[in-house]
Amino acid sequence: MALRRKTHSKYDDYFERTKECAKCLKCNKVIKLSPHSGSNNLKYHLEKEHMDLFNEIRENDVQVKKKREMSIAESKTQSTIPFLPVSRVSVKMAPNKSGGEILNNWSQWQKNGSRSAEVEVSLMEMIAHDVLPLRTIEKPGFLNFLKVLAPKLRIHKRYHFTNTLLPNLVNRLENDIKGALKNMVFVGITCDGWNSTDGKHSLLSVTAHWLDSRTFEPKYAILGSCAVRGRHTSENFCNIVEASLDKFEISKHSVVSVVRDGGSNVEAMCNKLELKSIHCYAHLIQLCLKDTLDLILEVEPIVLKVKKYCRKVHKSTVCREIFQSLQIQENLPERMLKKSCEVRWSSLYLMLSSFLENRRAIALLQIDNPKLNLPIIDSREWDVIDLLCEVLKPLAETTKAVQSRFEATASVVIPSLKLLEFKLNRMKREESIDERRECIAKLNSTLALRTQHLHSDSFLRTCTFLDPRFKDSFFSFSHKDYIIQKSKTATNTTSENTDGCSDVVVCTEESPLTLYQSFLKENSPEPTDPIEKNSIAKEIDEYLQHPPSQETDPYAYWNNAENLPHLKKMALEFLCVPATSSESERLFSLSGLICSPRRTNLTPERLDQLTFCSQNIKIFGFSS
């Protein structure tokens, strides 16, 4: 009788399996196994012969699924950002055209024919959108495809696509952006720099974020991924940003703020342009993380060990195959170990959590295969890895959430910091091991040191106040007087007291409390009777009458807030600025795909054009 394998399938409790067959433990029937059918033969046998066992497996599946869903829901309630990071963007596809005789006119399929021109424009958009090389149109396989699809079709050579169709596509998208900006009153900008891995290309991204003045719908566009010539000085960056703003007729007075990294050259650029700027929140969190790890002396050698282990498993075919077989044997998810990357936010946490998840397979791999020369991870080091995962998890969750394209405006920065501090203090109170408590305390103190100035930043406080998800519940002192003064200085006022808007009903479930609800319960001030001094104060009192709700859509709220004209105009200004420069980071990921090692003759200007077109097509759609 063959030895049973270690359990990794739900059918192993009912069958004794070998590589070729399986024996039912209830009726002793032998069932042949096939690598193509997987476990379907076992399933069909139970369903036909042993319905009670089949129902038992189905019930277990339901319980496992329910447990997984509950676990996901529970983790969401403890998020330091009280919203789901859902994108509001989808790629616009061209409408279907009616059929007909497409080959009835020879001339329209020639090089300068109407149908050939449409095909070439569509082909250029496909190349840009799908990040394909321009040489695609000259490849034999593609030419054969066109020959089979439309034998009469004749298209121009690559030179025409590069020097005519690509610039035409750039012009079309620039006009689309200008059209969308007509309903823009205020705009937020993100800027960031990027260098290709081969050092041949340097880009400076400029992205725009605004709210439609008619509908309060959030919008964004890529103004440029501009090639940087010469030194990366603030003067050079000033010229690039000013040129981008001028191209799209954006006045500097309409720029509310620039979201940037901590580079002194970018900060100096904003000062010279006389533009308000804020530090990218996600980048700030990563600096806090780095500072904390520097304070824990024994972390660095352990992290280096884990990195070396992950590289070895990725590079060695033998090592990878053994590791994957051990994952199956130990009933672990068949996912490869993640690698850390300095420029990727939260990659250290993802690497350590992946490493910890596969602890059993890693331990067996290093014990049973000493010839592989893998680093030895002892029990003490495993404890440190576990500690790091626990401490880094809140930061990683926050970093992921604040990269939401529209939900994470600058208004989430102060509430996120408050909730993060609240969560770390709770973890510290509940932790019984002194070493872990000390590590959490170090992270908390580092976070406070790096971000203490943000709590008194009038711009961020105004953004938070005008977000109906937060209002004034995350301030240690009132911001009402500043809002009144800010509103008084506005040149344009609207008539007051039209039909009012209604708040989204606050969730009435009391258990379990989310992290957001727990914080508000402990920190919200008692409601006071409003003192109506003027129209602005009256608006603010009316606005604060209802408690904040994390379920509120801030854009829909202000679109319907006709009874709060002064605050509505301020919301149009302050809720357009993103919390992070993640849109620029996404843009550079795209540039990295375009700038592949094989494209050695790609010029900086061409890279700029292709990046600009690829990302903006996703926003404004195809032309036909």
Automatic annotation (TrEMBL):
SUPFAM superfamilies listed in its UniProt record = Ribonuclease H-like
Query: Where in the cell?
Result: Nucleus
Gene Ontology terms for molecular function:
DNA binding; protein dimerization activity; zinc ion binding
Which domain of life does this protein belong to?
Eukaryota
Q: Which InterPro entries match?
A: HATC_C_dom, RNaseH-like_sf, Znf_BED, ZnF_BED_domain_contain
**What is the predominant subcellular site recorded for this chain?**
nucleus
Q: Which residues form the BED-type domain?
A: 5-57
Write out the transmembrane intervals.
none
Name of the protein this chain belongs to: BED-type domain-containing protein
Q: Which GO terms describe its cellular component?
A: nucleus
Q: Which UniProt keywords apply?
A: DNA-binding, Metal-binding, Nucleus, Transcription, Transcription regulation, Zinc, Zinc-finger
